[in-house]
Amino acid sequence: MNVLYPAFYRHLLHPIYHAVKRDGFNAVEREALATDMLDAAGLARLQRAKFSRLLRDARAQSPYYREVIDAGAAEAALDGTPPHELGLPFLTKAVIRERLEDIVAADTATAQLIATGTGGEPVRFHTDPHAGLWHKSVAIRNRRWVGVPIGERAAILWGLQIDNYE
Predict the structure, then answer these.
(1) How many Å is the Cα radius of gyration of the chain?
(2) How is the chain split into domains, by residue range?
């Protein structure tokens, strides 16, 4: 393999592909990689801000989360209250089965939802393309952490029973 190809792919081909595709991946990847530059305090601030926004958005958009998230939880999280002290219930497979339609955010375009599921005692749920972009960008970041940046050859073993839908 040409030694120039990985750098060519990483710095030119990959970003151009996603720019042409207009899928938002380049912005998501930049955001994911930017967290590597934060010190512990900066990372903690970012985590609190994102968690607070998640709570606020979930409460505003989801009937289920409107019921189970206290009105002041987002502000408490932003102020540093640990998640385990906010009184949030566990999201169990039983809750997902019973309340899936109430969990999905009201502003979610149904056509954008991607059906997926879990193993063990199976449960079906939805994700969206934006979550897939984050999954891919975090995988790229994690490979970089172990010395395999995007564009470099790597062997990846994968296999889950949930990938074998009947």
Answers:
(1) 19
(2) 5-163
